[in-house]
Amino acid sequence: MSKHIGIVACSAEGAALCYRTICMEGTALLGRHAHPEVTMHTFPLSEYMRYIEKGDWENVADLMLSSVSKLAKVGADFAICPDNTIHQAFDLVVNKSPIPWLHIAQEVAAEAKRKKYKCLGILGTRYLMEGPVYPAKITAVGIEHMIPKVKDRERINQIIFDELVNARFTSEALVYFKGVINELKNKGCNAVILGCTEIPLLVTQENSPLPILDSTRLLARAALKKAISSISG
Which domains does the chain have, with CATH numbers? Predict the structure, then answer.
């Protein structure tokens, strides 16, 4: 039996992409129509935002712990969270959690190291781009990073919260993201982290000026690998 994956969700579109990836790519590993057992719990995004906007990461952690406790009670063996921003509360969660977790930025950093990237651009919410989630994990594997300039961070944040989390993916938004990625490329980045789990629904490898590190799918694939480790080795 594969392990039971618990998904602590925050925003719907990113969580849905992560869930779909686990289910669809599970077939390549386990056979037709097969994937590990998956359970997801999510509070409304509004509940998270009331604390994120205040920088109140303790209460963000409490929401995550409440979700993971529910998942553990229905049998989840480990947890993932397809939301980069609330990983800022990760250290407040993991030691109190009833089950172990995978860390989204750690999975992205491992892939970046495997691909021998030297400098990564970071895209995501303002809280993510300006916060500690990725710098610590990237620096730990010897990779440099950059973030967009202030006006671009503000505009990207607006697009995410006004459009992407509401399943609005416009050509205008894509043009803006491509411009920001081009600027990061010109400054020396050789790949870009899509550090909001909705961004891969807009920016793809086919339309990006730089190689992408799709945090949503990388986390889903890491969860698949962990879930089948007990039956594949």
Answer: 5-103+217-232 (3.40.50.1860), 105-214 (3.40.50.1860)
